[in-house]
Design goal:
Elements lengths: L2 E5 L3 E2 L5 E8 L8 E6 L8 E6 L6 E3 L7 E6 L4 E6 L8 E7 L9 E5 L2
Parallel strand pairs: 2-10
Antiparallel strand pairs: 1-3, 3-8, 4-5, 4-9, 5-6, 7-8, 9-10
Length: about 120
Amino acid sequence: EVQLVESGGDLVQPGGSLRLSCAASGFTFSSYAMSWVRQAPGKGLEFEWVSHINSGAGDTYYADSVKGRFTISRDDAKNTVYLQMNSLKPEDTAVYYCLRGPFDYWGQGTQVTVSS
């Protein structure tokens, strides 16, 4: 059974940092690209793609809204993908989800709130 479990969300002040983790199981993690998306409050079913990391060489991609502030990485030995978030802004407030490559499996999400 494929499982993706996010953790690391929290309440943080503007300018602060958080690191999200997504622990994967039930599939060959190293063979799949992984992504992060987020859903801001009040956005209904609207999701914003945040970042993506390929398998193998691990090429990375970012939305313009987070480029230069967020860093995606992966540890295939631990079956885990990370999202390091720095210089957080109130508009980063959202539920963050990790997804397996073809967007066929999602985690349950972790809440990030940026507020003073």
